[in-house]
Structure formats: structure tokens, C-alpha cells
């Protein structure tokens, strides 16, 4: 089944039988041409037109024709990914395929909250643009880095981080049982990489990111972003939201406001989040956004739970 077919209206019995948890990806999932096909759908084109107006940048064009370098900038990547995910979600909703619940990986939680009605789409676009600007600023203040450790259990990576004395380093993302991302001061991350290799890691990969996201080095901007959040109203979700900060459902606006501030510092608990989804009996996980990173993670975490990515028509994961 192609994504194009999957996005079209389906028989009522298929819609009513499936309890779908929609997954929304975070930064790093951007790629050239990621919205070239989805803008053919009127509901999606409307989302992008609104994003262009709200942000004052040619986001639609960037998501269709932008280069990898243009899309890599944090203050562009974040609204680009969110707009693409919102556009895909809008098409599915129009075609009678709303999710039973939503979850997002880091940045993707903003998309999830918009789909759940906690924040309106205009506000989310403004917030993620500002979030991206602040995160880009961190890279100018601190020499931070992130690295993926593959082939070691997360508990062992936690222990190795505790052994580093040259600076701040800790787990940023628990992505899958044997893939854990660490974040912190560049010297400390380098020392952690050496320890991981000595401990038998299958691979250690330095990530091409601009800063030490999900680490204590984000404390300054977490406070500044929290102050920005205070200007906007939040509403109780009309669709359940499974947070990857807590691996639990969030319902109260005050709790969600704190979560959006604290997630800049806190690790992404994706393994626990997908395990919770499996335990709660969802029929399928559907990733809505560019790429299929979360689908790959989810299949390794809960192989018995159906996982599908919808990112372009000729390949859906």
C-alpha cells in the first residue's frame, strides 16, 4: 500500500477497527523535497500557506526545493518538520482518519499538542520557530555535542556517563534498546565516546547537530522559552497525549506548560513511550512527518505492534 492510497478515505470498517497512535518526529528528520508531494492536497497546502504568513519566511518553498544545508539550520528545520507533520495530519483528518492518541519525539511533541488541541497551529508554529532560534543560540554560547552509542544497553551508557569527569554529559535520547544518544560539553562527549568504544559499543556516531540538546547546557534557554510560553493559552487535550518526557499521558495545561520547558533539559524516553503504547493496546503506530526514523525505532522496541511511516507516496516504511 502506498502512502498516497493510505491517505485517501477508507471503508468505515477499517477506520473504526483501528486504534491508531500518531507519532510525530523531531529535529534531524528533515530532508530535501520532504513536502513536494503533500502540498498537492488542499488541506496540506493550507497549512503551509499559513506557515509562510505566520513566520514570514518561504517555508513552503524550503520544504519543496530547499537544500540540505538550508534545512539543517535549527530555526528553519524545526518549523519545517512541524509544518510537514501538521500538513500530513490535516489530510488524514479530512479523510476520516483521526488518531486515537498522539505522541512526539522532542520537537514532535509540539505537533502532537497541536493535533490534540492544546495549542492552536499558529501558536505552535511561532513557538517552534522561537525554540529553534534559542537552540541555535546555545551553540554559539557553548561548545556542545551529541553522539549516538549503538550496541550497548542504555543502563550501561548511563553508568559510563557518570564516570566522565571532564564536563557535563548525560543521556539525551533513549531511542531504542541498544541505541542511546548522549549530549553535553564537547570534551565530555568525546571522553564518553572513548569509554563506550572500550566497553564494546558496536558503533559510536557523532551527530551533526548545532548544540547539546536535552542536557543541562540548555538551562538558560529553557528559562527563556518558559517565559515565552507564558504568553500563550494552553487548553486541555481533546485527544490523549502520551509524553516522551514522562512516558505517561498529560492532561493538565499547567503540567504541559512545564513539560514543554523542561523537555529542553530532559531526555527523550522513547523506548518507554512505545512500550507504554504497546501495553495500552493500540492497534498501530503511524508516523506522520518526513522520514521514518520513529518507525524504525518502534519496530525494534515493540516488534509485534504494527508501525507505518507516511513520508512520501512511493514509500511508506
Q: Judging from the principal axes of the Cα atoms, what is the shape?
A: globular
Helix content: 40-55%
The strand line-up of the biggest sheet is 8-7-2-1-9-10
Task: Write down how many β-strands occur, each being a DSSP E stretch of 2 or more residues.
Answer: 10
Write the layout of secondary structure elements.
Blueprint: H1 3-7, H2 12-17, E1 20-24, H3 42-55, H4 59-65, H5 68-72, H6 74-94, E2 101-104, H7 108-115, H8 121-141, E3 144-150, H9 154-163, E4 169-176, E5 179-185, H10 186-198, E6 203-206, H11 219-229, E7 241-243, E8 248-250, H12 253-262, H13 270-279, E9 284-288, H14 293-301, E10 306-310
Parallel strand pairs: 1-2, 1-9, 2-7, 9-10
Antiparallel strand pairs: 3-5, 3-6, 4-5, 7-8
Helix pairs in contact: 3-6, 3-8, 4-6, 6-7, 6-8, 8-11, 11-12
Amino acid at each position: 500500500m502506498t502512502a498516497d492510497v493510505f491517505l485517501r478515505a477508507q471503508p468505515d470498517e477499517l477506520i473504526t477497527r483501528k486504534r491508531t497512535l500518531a507519532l510525530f518526529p523531531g529535529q534531524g528528520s528533515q530532508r530535501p523535497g520532504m513536502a513536494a508531494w503533500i502540498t498537492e492536497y488542499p488541506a496540506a497546502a493550507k497549512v503551509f500557506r499559513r506557515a509562510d504568513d505566520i513566520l514570514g519566511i518561504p517555508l513552503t518553498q524550503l520544504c519543496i526545493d530547499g537544500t540540505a544545508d538550508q534545512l539543517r539550520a535549527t530555526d528553519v528545520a524545526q518549523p519545517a518538520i512541524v509544518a510537514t507533520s501538521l500538513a500530513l495530519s490535516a489530510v488524514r483528518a479530512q479523510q476520516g482518519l483521526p488518531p486515537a492518541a498522539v505522541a512526539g519525539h522532542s520537537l514532535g511533541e509540539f505537533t502532537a499538542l497541536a493535533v490534540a488541541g492544546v495549542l492552536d497551529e499558529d501558536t505552535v508554529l511561532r513557538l517552534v520557530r522561537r525554540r529553534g532560534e534559542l537552540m541555535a543560540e546555545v551553540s554559539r554560547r557553548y561548545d556542545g555535542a551529541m553522539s549516538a552509542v549503538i550496541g550497548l544497553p542504555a543502563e550501561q551508557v548511563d553508568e559510563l556517563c557518570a564516570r566522565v569527569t571532564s564536563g557535563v554529559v548525560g543521556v539525551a535520547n533513549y531511542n531504542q534498546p541498544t541505541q542511546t544518544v548522549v549530549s553535553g560539553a564537547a570534551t565530555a562527549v568525546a571522553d564518553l565516546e572513548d569509554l563506550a568504544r572500550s566497553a564494546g559499543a558496536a558503533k559510536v556516531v557523532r551527530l551533526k547537530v548545532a548544540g547539546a540538546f536535552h542536557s543541562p547546557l540548555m538551562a538558560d534557554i529553557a528559562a527563556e522559552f518558559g517565559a515565552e510560553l507564558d504568553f500563550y493559552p494552553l487548553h486541555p487535550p481533546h485527544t490523549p497525549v502520551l509524553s516522551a518526557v514522562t512516558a505517561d499521558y498529560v492532561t493538565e495545561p499547567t503540567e504541559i506548560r512545564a513539560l514543554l520547558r523542561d523537555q529542553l533539559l530532559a531526555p527523550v524516553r522513547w523506548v518507554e513511550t512505545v512500550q507504554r503504547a504497546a501495553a495500552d493496546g493500540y492497534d498501530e503506530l503511524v508516523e506522520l512527518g518526513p522520514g521514518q526514523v520513529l518507525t524504525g525505532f518502534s519496530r525494534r522496541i515493540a516488534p509485534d505492534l504494527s508501525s507505518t511511516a507516511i513520508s512520501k507516496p512511493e514509500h511508506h516504511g
